[in-house]
Amino acid sequence: MPTNTQIPTLDEDGQIPAYVVQPQVQPRAAIIVQQEIFGVDAGIQKKCQEWADRGYLAVAPDTFWRQQPGVELDADVPEQFQEAIGYMTKHDFDLGIRDIEAVVHWIRRERDIAKVGLVGFCMGGRVAYMAAARTDIDASVGYYGVMIDQMLGEKNAIANPLMLHIPTADHFVGPDAQKAIHTGLDDHPKVTLHDYEGLDHGFAAEIGSRRDEAGATLADERTQAFFAEHLG
Fold first, then answer.
1. What stretches in the chain show pLDDT beneath 50?
2. 201 in catalytic set
3. Which of 62, 201, 212, 230 is catalytic?
């Protein structure tokens, strides 16, 4: 049953709104579902429900809560897409990772679940990389993460497993950025990279026109196996 929850920040300067779905069985682990730039929309809520159906506690924090709580925008509407870009541009990613750390602590302390993973999309794919480098999260997965090529200096801090899904025709993450990611991470013992030939940004979105069914299915199967291995 989905619920809306308030999670205290580490600095006790506010409450992070979160969409939480509890599985019908004892949770095998927890997965933080990190939104794209469009908010905790119907697609992110669907992903949460699917993880709960697999036996995980699913938690989707509202990333933009300090700017505008409750953002839900449509990627297929140009004006709303630009509004979403504006929220991402103003977002403090360093503070956002502190929020992710707060969610991890809340899951372990308040829900008594030891193993926590994170799966993120677009902006959330960058958050997945940052969480792997800056927190003690047990496993992370990023789909078409942006600006990861600019953060490769943090790769040596990655101590737990990280998987990145990279569409080769991503018009937000171009060939040079993709090459830098491969050069920087191909030989990292904790990192697994998967390329998706000819697919574009957003190919695994649950709603809207960007989805590629075959690519999304393959990536999701890899993600499910990855979390089963590293979270239980």
1. none
2. yes
3. 201
